[in-house]
Amino acid sequence: MRSRLASGPAPAGAAEAEALRRFRSFLLLALAQEEPAAPALEGLRTGERRTRRVIEAWLDAAAQEAGPDEAALRAALAPIAERFLGALRETAQARRASGAPVSGQRRAVSAAIDRVCDAFFAIDVETGAIADANPAAGALLGTTRDRLLGSDAMAYVPESAREAWWTQLDAVSEGAEPRRFRGTLQDSGGRPLAVDATITRFATRSRTLALVLARS
């Protein structure tokens, strides 16, 4: 089994490549020990969603190499992968919880954003959660700003358009320049809304946000 795990597809992002390297090291230890230590995640700056895609692709490649042992390999590796991803999720949550408190200057910026007539969203590029929004965003989507906060941004995107939005969020998470694109949202009643949008990266110590301005 170890020989089958010796190689795998390399992801494009450097952070995901490092996550995959650490997962493979953790995997080999888990196969050799009954109670392996927790995975080493210090300094790793990638989230669960992006890392899960990379690990699942690598596991699929390993399973294909296993031939008739594919089912046994998947059964053996699945709980180890979930343990690694669970530890990564807990680490990310701890980083977010330790973020700095909101300062007076940031409150002033938020007040200014609230006056912008275009819809404004700050979206966590890892989870897709709306971290901030302005009243114009609530009006555009037929709801209120308070109901938007913490909700899933993709709930306001038609299913057929979600892949395009994730592509934009992934590009921002990789450090791309500000982007302008034509997209589709949907209001709380499910009515589609064509929007012209700009998206900009804003990275903090604990997470990366996509700042989106959308005009119907």
Characterize this entry briefly:
The chain is an alpha+beta fold and 216 residues long. 46% of the residues lie in helices and 18% in strands.
Structure description:
With 216 residues, this protein is α+β, with helices and mostly antiparallel strands. It has helices at residues 14-32, 48-66, 70-97, 104-114, 135-140, 145-148, 162-173, and strands spanning 119-124, 130-133, 179-186, 192-203, 208-215. Strand 3 and strand 4 (192-203) form a beta hairpin.
Keywords:
elongated; 216 residues; Beta-Lactamase; alpha+beta
SSE layout and pairing:
Layout: H1 14-32, H2 48-66, H3 70-97, H4 104-114, E1 119-124, E2 130-133, H5 135-140, H6 145-148, H7 162-173, E3 179-186, E4 192-203, E5 208-215
Antiparallel strand pairs: 1-2, 1-5, 3-4, 4-5
